[in-house]
Known about the structure:
Blueprint: E1 5-8, H1 14-22, E2 27-33, E3 36-44, E4 49-52, E5 57-60, H2 63-73
Parallel strand pairs: 1-2
Antiparallel strand pairs: 2-3, 3-4, 4-5
Amino acid sequence: MPEPLRIDSGELTADEILTAVREGRRVVVRTEMLGGTYEVTLRHDGTIFYCDTPTTLHKHEDEEGMRTCIAKMGYARSELTED
């Protein structure tokens, strides 16, 4: 199994995170919530996408559901660029 990719929230775009997850890597995102710093693990088992937080294991049936979760929770940086 490949080494997990460890990032801070906002470091990579959702596309970059999803590429790593599709390649079989676990992506460990360090994020701030509830007044502390926590690690969230994003992964894919070939069928289901998982978002393992300190309190809950979220499951997503498809990539679009995972992308929505990543954006909603602020794990990825904006893909918009300024001109």
